[in-house]
Amino acid sequence: MPGIIKVGNDAPALDGETEKPYFHLQDLEQRSEQYLQQIRQQAAALLTQAQAQADALRQQTIQQARQEALAMARQEMQQETQRRVALLDPLLQTSVVQLQEQLLAWRLEWEQRTIDLAVGIAEKICRRELALRPEIVLKQIEAALQLAGPDDQIELRIHPSDREVFGPLIDALVARLTDLSRTQVVEDLQIQIGGCLVRTKYGSIDTQLSTQLARIAEELAP
After folding, report:
1. Which residue in 27, 85, 145, 200 could disulfide with 151, CB within 3.0 to 4.6 Å?
2. How far apart are CA 113 and CA 191, in angstroms?
3. Which pLDDT tens digit goes with each residue over 151-176?
4. CATH assignment, 133-220
5. Where are the domains of the chain?
6. 28 near 5, Cβ under 8 Å?
C-alpha cells in the first residue's frame, strides 16, 4: 500500500480544497521523474545547441584560417614573383634585344636571298634573250654612245664575237653617233657578249648585263 504524506498544519490548502492536501509517495516519484526527464531534455537540447554552435564556430574558424592562409600564400607568391622578375628583368631585356637583333638579321638575310634569287632569274632571262636576239648589242652600244655625248676621245670596248658578227653595223652606228676619227673600237675578252663599255675623259658607261644587274641589286638591297 503506497505511503501517504500529510502536509503540515501550517501548509496552505489548495484552491477548492476545504482540507489540507495529502500527497501520495507514488505521485511524488512520478513528478520527480517527469521533472528529471524535462531537465534531461533541456540539457540535451542545450548540448545539441552548444555542439551546433561549436561546429559553426569551428567551421568559421577553419574558413577564416583558410582564407588567411590563402591570402598569405598569395602575398608570398606575389612577392616571390616580383623578386624573380626583378632578378630576371635585365636578362629579359637582354634577351629581347638579342631577339630583335636576330629577327632583323634574319629579315635582312632573307631579303638579300630574295634579291639574289630575283637577280639570278633576271640574268637567266636576259641571257636567253641575248641568245635569241644577239642584235641587242647594237641597242646597248647606241644607248652608251648617246649617254657619252660629244667627247674628244671615246673608247668603245666590245666582245670579239660581237665585233665579228656585227662589225659593219657597229662601225656604221659609231660613225652616225660620234666622230669616227676620234672613236676607237676595241675588242676585249673581258667584256660580256651583248654588252659594251664606253670610256671617255668624263668617266665610263658600262652596259654589261652583270653590271646592270649588280646596280639593280644594290638599289634593292635593304
Report:
1. 200
2. 27
3. 668 899 999 999 999 999 998 888 88
4. 3.30.2320.30
5. 133-220
6. yes
